[in-house]
Amino acid sequence: MALRGHLIKIARTRALTGGQPRRAQSVAVLGAPFSQGQKRRGVEHGPKVIRDAGLIERLSGLDYAVHDFGDLTFHYPELDEPYMNVKFPRTVGAATKKLSGAVSRAVGAGHTLVMLGGDHSLGIGSVAGHAQQCPDLCVIWVDAHADVNTPETSPSGNLHGQPVAFMLKELQDKVPDLPGFSWVKPFLSCRDLVYIGLRDVDPGEYHILKNLGIQYFTMRDIDRLGIQRVTEVALDHVLARKQRPIHLSFDIDAFDPSLAPATGTPVNGGLTYREGIYITEEVHNTGLLSVIDMVEVNPVVGSTRAAAQATASLAVDVIASSLGQTREGAHGVIDEIPSTKDHVDTEQLCL
Q1: How far, in Å, CA of 295 to CA of 145, rounded?
Q2: pLDDT tens, position by position, 48-61
Q3: Contact at 8 Å (CB) between 261 and 310?
Q4: 0.85 exceeded by the pTM?
Q5: How far apart are CA 26 and CA 117, in angstroms?
Q6: Are 56 and 116 in contact (CB under 8 A)?
Q7: Would you name the residues annotated as active-site residues?
Q8: Could you give the CA distance from residue 128 to residue 97 in angstroms, rounded to a whole number?
């Protein structure tokens, strides 16, 4: 671990230019108002409420050229019967395929992409589209849930709990051919994935995590080690071998429900504000962030309008900090502090 820690420091140093993280000059924002990967309606309104919370203005204030590509529109088949207990497979398959193409085009055009969900089944399309342009990418999955159930292990059949299983090469023979998913070919190795924030893992997922040796950090690990150490080891895990694009897939339910109440599957004991923002600040500091997903903001399940607004505002903070907003404040560049003597001399000249 000491050697790998040394290597990650070298990688971070090389990712810096002039003391500041290297970053793309443009950010693309893409909405995916989709909810069929789970049972609760309302998450399709996530992109709108996140934009309404000031996302575009915040990113523009970070000196990016911001391109808002609007929201994708999705086709909903009249008949989409469950398959092996998996709900809405054709609908989710078609939606994730469409999202994959849109993400691939945005990344291929040179943008850093912000994908606004929608539920986390969209991760299949978002990461797959990113991988079309950057096949050597790595994934940091910040979530209360592992989302790595297979159709056979899933207790609910909801596809928002299964997206990672469709990506992993090591699970290729465990995922059946679902209608609507013929376009998906596994593209990610277990060693290219790390989880942060887990605290609600199903039995089948636990077996997969342990048997495949996937790197993950639960909330207990964060309590035990601290968020600084957890984030350092997580980045070390995915970047020590080489610099490569980062796909940050962030489920708002990674936060404690007291901070993010407007989400469909809240779990007590989640990330604090400071812990969540620290993760995104450190991802930004690598200079390697290429795509961020922000998913599972559901204004309909918030008990009050204020709860929905607080959750959406938190989502904006997460996205902005991943793209360079700091807790030191947003400041323009000042070459030097004006001299008091220069000021006095100027006044004397005026007299």
Answers
A1: 13
A2: 999 999 999 999 99
A3: yes
A4: yes
A5: 20
A6: no
A7: 120, 143, 145, 147, 160, 251, 253, 296
A8: 9
